[in-house]
Amino acid sequence: MLSFIVPVLNEEESLDLFYKELQKVILQLKEPYEIIFIDDGSTDNSLNILKKLAKEDRQIKIFSFRRNLGKSEALTYGFIKAQGDYIITLDADLQDKPIEIPKLLEKARTGIDVVSGWRKNRKDKSKMKIISRLFNFLIAWLFNLRLHDLNCGLKVYTKEAAKSLRLYGGLHRFIPILACEQGFTVDEVIVEHAPRNYGKSKYGFSKLWKDLPDMFTIVFLVKYGKRPLHFFGIIGGTLAFIGILILSYLTMLRFMGQTIGGRPLLFFGMLLVLAGFQIFFTGFLADLMINISQTKELVGKDGLHFPVKYSSEKHLL
Fold first, then answer.
1. What sections of 85-222 are H helices per DSSP?
2. Distance CA 163, CA 76 (A)
3. How far apart, in Å, are the Cα atoms of 44 and each of 15, 36, 72, 269, 305?
4. Which tens digits make up the pLDDT trace of 227-257?
5. Which residues are paired to 34 by β-bridges?
6. CATH of 2-224, one of 3.40.50.300, 3.40.50.1820, 3.40.190.10, 3.90.550.10
7. CB within 8 A of 223, min separation 6: which ones?
8. pTM score
9. Residues 189-207: pLDDT tens digits?
10. Cα 26 to Cα 29: distance, rounded to the nearest angstrom
11. Could you give the count of Cα atoms lying within 13 Å of 304 in the half-sphere of its Cβ?
């Protein structure tokens, strides 16, 4: 079974045409399916159009948020509701064409858990292309993940990979990284990208400044989410070490008979030592809480449970 998840935000102009294009692909695939529309607090006529489509197709499911929560939350809710063995996400603005779905499905069925579209010949405005290239370059440099287009809305997931994701804020832009970190295989397929003919872009140049905090979040979550002491410990230890060096230098001056009580350097050294130890113990407490939390999650009725992919025993774990 295939599950199509479509987040919708003020897409009244393109919804009818989008559904017709998607139906052509579904008829071509000849597989059981469901279409899950997540209305992310649209203020136009999108919800009424979706209700009309649902009357014509019983495989359509509609979930409408009372207010705009964001694409990450919409996708997460869709993943929770999806029942298909393969889950396909795509936007309703028709920039990513439904006709490209079979190519991604074919790749996924070779054993890839997450297949992302690569808009090699992107049809967006020049400023959006520049932002996207900068964004993808930084991600490739930080995580050594050689994908050309992380944020393409057209993706195919295995059921296990999709349901493992819990997205919030701007984390939908980092799905391949989050999936890769959990041990899922990730790849990309070149897809055709169309110019925007319907609606307005939900992102402007301010997208760059919104992406940067999310990028720092994902760096911390992926690299230090399970070992925060390695992050806070390095920072806190460095600050405390510099402070101790300063105070040691001032102590030597004091033994040489010089007055140090009124020196700003004394207060600066004390501040570094205090801040360093505080940051270090913040990491220590975070590490302790994560350890306790993971222990509670792993211990079940039958003892310890681990995310085993395959077992030679009778039942898969």
1. 101-108, 126-143, 159-163, 175-181, 207-219
2. 8
3. 12, 19, 21, 59, 47
4. 888 888 889 999 999 999 999 999 998 888 8
5. 3
6. 3.90.550.10
7. 231
8. 0.74
9. 999 888 777 666 655 555 5
10. 5
11. 4
